[in-house]
Amino acid sequence: MATIYIDGKPYETKDGINLLDTCLSLGFDVPYFCWHPALHSVGACRQCAVKVFKDEKDTKGRIVMSCMTPVADGMRLSIDDPEAIKFRASVIEWLMLNHPHDCPVCDEGGECHLQDMTLLAGHVYRRTTLKKRTHTNQDLGPFVNHEMNRCIQCYRCVRFYKDYAGGKDLDVFGCHDHVYFGRSRNGALESEFSGNLVEVCPTGVFTDKKFKKHYTRKWDLQAAPSVCVHCSLGCNTLPGERYGTLRRIRNRYNQSVNGYFLCDRGRYGYEFVNSKIRMRAASVKIKGAAPADEVAPELAISEIRKKLNGTHEGGIIGIGSPRASLESNYALRELVGAENFYHGVSDTVFNMMGEIVRIIKDGPVAAASLEDVREADAVLVLGEDVSNTAPMLALALRQASRNAPLAGLAKFKIPHWDDAAARNAMQGEKSPFFIASFTGTRIDDLASEKPYRTAPDDIARLGFLIAHELAPESPGVPDAGEEEKSLARRITVALRNSKKPLVVCGTGPQSIHILRAAANAAWAIKQAVPDARIAFSLPECNSMGLALMDFSSGRPVSEALKRVQAGGAKAVIVIENELVESIGKEGAEEIMSLPCSVAIDFIATRTSQLAGVALPAASFAESQGTFVNNEARAQRFYKVMQPQNKNIQGAWRWLREIEAALGTAKQCPEIDALTAELAKKMPQFAPIADRAYFPPPGFRIAGMKIPRQPYRYSGRTAMHTHIGMVEPKPPSDTGSALSFSMEGFYDASKKQKIPSALLTHYWAPFWNSVQALNKFQGGVGGPLLGGESGKRLMGASGSDPVYFTDIPEKQKAPGLSGANNRGLFAVPLYHVFGSERLSMENPAVASLCPEGGQPFIAASPRTLSALGLNKGDTMGLEIGGTVFEFKTVADEEMAEGLAGVFVPENGNIRADLAGLYSKLPAWARFL
Amino acid sequence: MLALLRALWLILLHTFKKRVTVQYPEQKPYVPPRWRGRIILSRDPDGGERCVACYLCAVACPVDCIALQAAEDETGRRYPASFRINFSRCIFCGYCEEACPTYAIQLTTDYEMGEYRRANLVYEKEDLLISGQGKYPGYNFYRVAGVEIGGKAKGEAENERPPVDVRGLLP
């Protein structure tokens, strides 16, 4: 701790940080542009000037840039010094020299850091009559709009895009007041984090192109804390609604998870909520009639009751979903009974999830949060293509790759926040970073040596070898080659010499051996380095929640199929699930052809089209619930808006209504009561009953709820008048402490803290932009004052590891000839834009899907030529007895003999490809 | 008794004073040009819609009776796709006019807006948009703004230099 004097008053502050950080953390309003809590200081904009005095007697002082000046004990500075004020006013005046007269048509207006800082620094009138510099714009693709005139040259965009996110195609060009931030030519930004430019840019140079299509000011957006549904990481989001449609998604700060950023899939994937594929009415299929009839919800329920009549409880099976909330899965499990509840995932995924739960629960190594990943200083990635399956994990790994060299900067006396100096001193040096994968990944540039490209089982063998090197009691790999061994040795040395080693793996390669190998490796490292961590990437947003439901006694959907085939079921209820993907077309048809089949989903799927009764569920934006992310952190998401019509309701509520209709009625409680019930009945979910992390519906501050709408929310008395003159009462929300109103408690003054789990927007006097966040943090970049939002369900056990001993054989050399005639090993490939069903409903996301959204097979050019194929040819592959035809793509990085199968999940994939991933990886015969 | 007589006397005196009431509606009172009456949306001198759908009128409105939705035409020009004022709520304070950065929304001297049905007091964009410039002739926001729209490329606005050639090395 250091004591500093600001304008004569003493304050306690942290050592080793800079003055700007200190002043903001203490609650002072110092204007700044180029500094960003995650990007740190470069001293480019000169806006954060303050005056520093030598000692008590010094009255003259000198002006310094607060972002570049380290804090020292006993330091005296002045923010309110007239000279410093004048300095800052002149700086903003010249930054504004060329700024266009755009605010009314600029999307940043109302949440613009430049607007805020202009007011804060006291610049009001434009004195100059000089002509303004102009720039032409570029087309930067479907996500980000470019308006270069508005630039104030703070360099934040390139510092984020290149330095932080590792992008290569956005840069700064030109010289003096001509500097230009853009690409060398028009074209879509390549980085999957490009959407963050919108939040990073302090002005309106980069704005949200999708939001522009249905633009609304920040103050008109009704928002609620939410959790991203597009991958397993559970990034915190703030979706905004206006006039009944979801308008945009913004980052919600959670230090332990996503921090300041989101990936483009999470930011732009929301369009499915508004899309045509939403189910908006209940439908009942009359026998013989092809399209199902839309009916009133009560009719659908009575239809279900009629069909279920006489079916004793055991005759109904329920198929839960990794996409549905804990509450919906629980309601289904309660309705049908635990013994009739099946996990709606393929056998492969089911087994992998079970193994991951066991690894986290029983193993000595804790699962890493994204914060842990950002702090790691040595990384081993086994098999998982994280940039495509869990993009924010890739971004966190990129930060981890800087930690080892950053720690070495102490000898140069360069503080970590002096970004330009630190990067210069590091000279591209990286933390030890090892990648084993089938093909090229977008984090290959971080690797310390050439990534190891090989088949899944060989990747697992590398993991087992490393484990054995570190801990001889873990099983060795008897027939390991010299090359494998020496690689394992190099990795072992690097991991052992680190302080926070991390092993990354996931369900992407669909290989249980890789998971076991990663666990062995992490457990073995733990013997040498206590801070070892393991990170998993999982298939869906609530995969972990579903797996935890019945981690010892659960059953996958294939068991349900067997039961149906054996005649052991008369009715089936499926929630928020596409069975075709987990069990294939025939299987899904067989299950859904039971006398009574009910599908509850928010989008129309093949499963819902097969169902006798389809019920429209609420999407994440219209319902409340809990998701459990990849590190078993339970996080609550709240209703952002009311469902678009009265037919739509949460899946859990449909299930409770069916239950009531069957006469086995429990009351139809509020969602929060359901959550409490579930936490009570299932000890593995007990932490979600902790009210400190999940405030109860009765929670009030000063007797008030927390408003979903900012207090400037406009148009209340005119937005409904095209329907009727009577202004409707705001919907009541009995399930949470949030209100559908602008009235309620909202205060940024740090006196009364709004729980982080309930923070609906960031605003403070003078701070309209997203930078208002610093008013809600204990210290800039630190945890939120309102406490953590979300809670880990399980940590590491203290027990000794029980190593896995099941070591796979070396993958046979691909038999392009000989006994394994024309055999290829087919492995699943993923793409950030294309491998997730919901985000593909946004045409902008779909447009970035590789190969125009067509399925393909990627193989190395050598493999292709051995098969006598050219790229672009159609290839026939027999996988598991079925023949599939694909276009071929040459992939230089692909391991020899592997065939990477990519099937985009865009809702209109060829019927024969549905469920193909559940069969991978597998030997395939080339035809 | 005395008070009563005094009152009668005063009333009698008033019958000889000049009348302030006029025979409305046959006779209209004088209304100053800055009267805050019925709200309109005006057009710029080139005939384009002045409103750029910036939402400032809506947020300035103390009774929240303005609701609109922005849209953009294919050339990048912002306009309101819908614009609604609920005059049954409007208090004619004029804050919307004050907030308007483009002189689009203006209060006029028309106050004869009585309706038998409240729903008739909800004015949509076609009811609000007039064909003239209203009180403030001559101003066209897009001539001073930096954004590019149809008919005005970058660098062609008032007080602007032509676009920078980024590849040029000259000072």
Can you give a write-up of this model?
- The complex is a heterodimer of chains A (927) and B (171).
- Chain A is an alpha/beta fold.
- Chain A folds into five domains: 2-95, Ubiquitin-like (UB roll) (Roll), CATH 3.10.20; 131-273, no CATH class; 300-345 and 540-687, Rossmann fold (3-Layer(aba) Sandwich), CATH 3.40.50; 357-538, Dimethylsulfoxide Reductase, domain 2; 823-926, Beta Barrel (Barwin-like endoglucanases), CATH 2.40.40.20.
- Chain A is built from 25 helices and 37 strands.
- Chain A has a seven-stranded mixed β-sheet, sandwiched between helices. In chain A, strands 32-36-33-35-34-37 form a six-stranded mixed beta barrel.
- In chain A, strand 15 and strand 16 (293-295) form a beta hairpin.
- The radius of gyration of chain A is 28 Å and the shape is globular.
- Chain B is an alpha+beta fold.
- Chain B has a domain at 31-144: Alpha-Beta Plaits.
- Chain B is built from five helices and six strands; from the N terminus they run H-E-H-E-E-H-E-E-H-H-E.
- At the A-B interface, strand 6 of A face helix 2, strand 2, strand 3 and strand 6 of B.
